[in-house]
């Protein structure tokens, strides 16, 4: 009989400028922290899934990490799918556990992109553009995401105040988290006055480049009674893919997040209104609002006004990215999405202090790769 899967342990490092960090030190800290959180030993881990690193590119990062930590997992693999990778690690770990192949799967992400790469990060990200139709014309990641935002602005579905409201709310959330990268309070005027990066996106509409790491341990549900922390059940996951390069996107308003969330809700037998706390990939303010509508949480043109009305605040109608999200908690490659999973688990455990959503029983974590290209949605429930 297939085992159900739970999240037994989570951990995220300090996020921001960590000049003493390396790719391996962040992976090791996150791994050992998640083990301690789960009450497990390294020898209990029989599956290891990792992402990738820009600062320290490795052909087989999972093998390097296993060697670094000194253990021999039964299953070891690395996945490289951009910002959606953190969610995919958890989705694949669930499959390993449900199949009975593994009992405890350690999923690890991390990179020291800020101090390890500096300005080279932007060049590395620009290289993911299509070699023939995007790179020769100077397409950057912000410019690519701004194309979708421009459609929304043109149709009147979004404006600058809507974007600014998202940035301000998430900075307020990050100020409540001791490990966040960006804690300085900002105002709507601060966002409006920040320099234009790729119209209509301004500096404070964009996530920072950070150092940091995060890990999640997915375990067989029957092991939960032996764990020191409240178990969180993996209710369902979903995946959606529509394109790779933005010039080939079939739409600039509908994306694979609709399929990924729909699949997860369908498998879990839940509705959009059952979700108490949402943690959705937010590399740009517009990206978050566009996805909320594509996912079906809001009608077209309604997410921006909801942000202005305060619905996404911790005490609001739809609490969103309570750790500050990529926009203010920080973004360190695939760890950015994994931070969402960690925060979702902590919300369901009731461990978030001033950030705690009252009576949170069901949470959504969503990760995005490429330019709206690939999506992974994870539904978690308080066991």
TrEMBL record:
SUPFAM superfamilies reported in the protein's UniProt record: Thiolase-like (SSF53901)
Pfam families: Thiolase_C_1 (PF22691)
Gene3D superfamilies, per database record: 3.40.47.10
Signal peptide limits: none
Gene Ontology terms for molecular function: acetyl-CoA C-acyltransferase activity
CDD domains named among the record's database cross-references: SCP-x_thiolase
Record domain Thiolase C-terminal: where: 238-382
Protein name: Thiolase family protein
């Amino acid at each position: 009989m297939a085992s159900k899967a739970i999240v037994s342990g989570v951990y995220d490092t300090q996020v921001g400028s960590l000049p003493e960090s390396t790719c391996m030190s962040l992976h090791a800290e996150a791994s050992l922290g998640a083990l301690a959180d789960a009450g497990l030993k390294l020898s209990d881990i029989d599956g290891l899934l990792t992402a990738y690193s820009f600062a320290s590119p490795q052909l087989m990062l999972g093998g390097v990490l296993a060697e670094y930590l000194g253990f021999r997992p039964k299953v070891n693999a690395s996945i490289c799918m951009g910002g959606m990778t953190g969610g995919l690690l958890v989705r694949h770990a669930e499959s390993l556990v449900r199949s009975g192949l593994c009992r405890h799967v350690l999923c690890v992400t991390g990179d020291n992109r800020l101090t390890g790469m500096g300005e080279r990060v932007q060049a590395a990200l620009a290289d993911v553009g299509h070699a023939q139709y995007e790179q020769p014309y100077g397409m950057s990641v912000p410019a690519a995401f701004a194309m979708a935002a421009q459609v929304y602005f043109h149709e009147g579905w979004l404006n600058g105040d809507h974007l600014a409201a998202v940035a301000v709310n998430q900075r307020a959330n990050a100020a409540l988290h001791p490990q966040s990268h960006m804690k300085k309070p900002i105002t709507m005027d601060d966002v409006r006055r920040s320099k234009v990066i790729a119209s209509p996106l301004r500096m404070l509409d964009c996530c920072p480049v950070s150092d940091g790491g995060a890990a999640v341990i997915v375990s067989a549900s029957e092991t939960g009674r032996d764990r020191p922390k409240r178990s969180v059940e993996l209710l369902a996951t979903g995946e959606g893919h529509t394109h790779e390069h933005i010039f080939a996107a079939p739409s600039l308003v509908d994306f694979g997040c609709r399929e990924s969330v729909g699949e997860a809700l369908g498998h879990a037998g839940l509705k959009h209104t059952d979700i108490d706390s949402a943690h959705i990939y937010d590399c740009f303010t517009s990206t978050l609002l566009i996805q909320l509508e594509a996912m079906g949480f809001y009608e077209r043109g309604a997410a921006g006004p909801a942000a202005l009305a305060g619905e996404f605040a911790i005490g609001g109608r739809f609490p969103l990215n309570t750790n500050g999200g990529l926009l203010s908690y920080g973004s360190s490659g695939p760890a950015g999405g994994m931070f969402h999973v960690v925060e979702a688990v902590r919300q369901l455990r009731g461990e978030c202090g001033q950030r705690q959503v009252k009576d949170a029983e069901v949470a959504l974590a969503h990760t995005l790769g490429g330019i709206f290209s690939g999506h992974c949605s994870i539904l978690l429930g308080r066991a």
